[in-house]
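Complex 283.
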Amino acid sequence: MDTASLTGKDLAAAINADTTARAKALTERAGRAPRLALVVANEDPASAWYVNSLKKSAANRGIDCDTVDLGADASADTLRTELSVRSADPETDAIMLQTPLPAGVTLDDVSAAIAATKDVDGVSPLSLGLLAAGSAGFAPATAEAVVELLKHHGVALEGRHVAVVGRSNVVGKPLAHLLLAENATVTVCHSRTTNLPAVTAAADVVVAAAGRIGLVTGANVREGAVVIDVGTNESSDGKIVGDVDAESVRGIAGGLSPVPGGVGPVTTALLMRHVVLAAERPR
Ligand code: NAP
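Predicted structure with NAP bound:
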């Protein structure tokens, strides 16, 4: 079977074009560009690379990106204070908290300080709760990117069985809620799942979001299934690779999203769209 490459580049370009036009209209109306506060508290090279790419992407869309570097030894109190100040600041439309956080500080310790209306990566407990309840709010961009990518490539979700591998608050759990909203039947797998290959082999769509190289192979997906690879892992030779063993899956799956070039570009595009949506919100 031919396995279609479910790339995210065209979709990201279309979202970006819309965001750029909306950012321009907002700037003309409000007399200033939409503004994202990007809060960083680490010295991690991968994070620095990602922050740089977000800044570039924001600049290309006409969005102001204000990077707030609190240092790798910032306390939970310092982070909460900064996030609260930005949440109350009328000049800040959107807030994103970059991970990893300083040693000993978890997302749970600080994320509630981000106002849900500005929480463009959907990390606060309120955002996750709104999503679970099916109410308006921002979903984490990566989870939303998976659903948007599937829809863009015409993959039907209603009534179909989707296996999500991973249950983090930023990818697996929010994705399960988004898929339920599309009327899919969802199985969420994790490190304690018994016989993961049997679960993925029974699914119409498999989403790998575990951060484990080669976790999903051709032996554990069914013929014609669609496979979305969310994983972004560094291989021993320094390359970015997913969670799916693409070579063994090709020829069996009906479609497979590449890494890089699949979920990643759509995630960044949706983050920027969320910034504009937050800025468009009536005050
Ligand atoms: P995470 O917080 O580490 O969560 C990983 C999840 O995978 C956990 O629920 C864990 O189970 C599960 N898991 C780990 N090993 C497993 C195994 N052998 N079998 C079944 N489940 C297993 O990671 P995350 O933040 O959700 O990110 C997941 C992956 O997505 C990473 O590679 C990350 O880099 C990537 N990511 C990509 C983007 C993008 O835009 N493309 C954005 C964000 C993240 P337990 O809960 O039982 O521990």
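Residues 142, 165-168, 170-172, 189-193, 196, 209-212, 215, 230-233, 263-264, 267 surround NAP (CB under 6 Å).
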